[in-house]
Amino acid sequence: MTARKRIARRLERWAGLLAFVACAALGAELQLDDGSVIRYEVIAPASADSASDTAQRLLSLLGEGKIDDAAALSNAPQAEFRRVFAQYGSAPNRLVAELAVGKHHLLVWDLAEADHRLAGQFYVRGADGFVLDDAPSEERSRLQRLLAAYRQGRIKP
């Protein structure tokens, strides 16, 4: 291979790398129905900018019942952290609907303390009753679409 071809090949590699970096720095955009745009970045879970390790630790601590340690991973004061996790079952927040797709259920909560934001919890019926449904599935995706439609007023209780 001649020196010119080696230099040309190196320049092509550098140009490709620079183009990749430039595109990554620009991020992405989401055009909303009202014409507004949300700009965002896609973060790789293994990158230094990822919050995934903290999320895994938080979930682990909550699973172990160590709410005080989990609260330490929040930017909210501990009392606020506890309030947020307890708000589903406290008055004046209330369950407003339950929708089901097969054995998968969506509970829709009206969170009065959060400006009446509608929040969803997903459950699945197992042999021993219902459990919180955190596993991705086609049924859960359908329930998420139902929650969106409920929030838009296309589904009435």
SS strand fraction: 15-25%
Give me the side-by-side strand order of the main sheet: 3-4-5-6
The number of distinct helices, counting runs of at least 4 residues, comes to 5
**Chain-averaged pLDDT:** 75
Please mark out the parts with pLDDT under 50 across 5 or more consecutive residues, or reply none. 14-26
Provide a concise account of the structure shown.
The chain is 41% helix and 24% strand.
What features would you describe in this structure?
This protein is an alpha+beta fold and 157 residues long. It has three domains: 1-42; 51-90, no CATH class; 93-157, no CATH class. The chain is 41% helix and 24% strand. It contains five helices and six strands; from the N terminus they run αββαααββββα. It has helices at residues 3-26, 52-63, 67-71, 78-86, 138-151, and strands at 28-31, 37-40, 94-101, 104-111, 117-126, 129-132. The strands form two sheets. The chain has a four-stranded antiparallel beta sheet with strand order 3-4-5-6, with helices on one face. The protein has a two-stranded antiparallel sheet with strand order 1-2. The model is unreliable at 14-26 (pLDDT under 50).
List the helices and strands and how they pair.
Elements (H helix, E strand, L loop, with lengths): L2 H24 L1 E4 L5 E4 L11 H12 L3 H5 L6 H9 L7 E8 L2 E8 L5 E10 L2 E4 L5 H14 L6
Antiparallel strand pairs: 1-2, 3-4, 4-5, 5-6
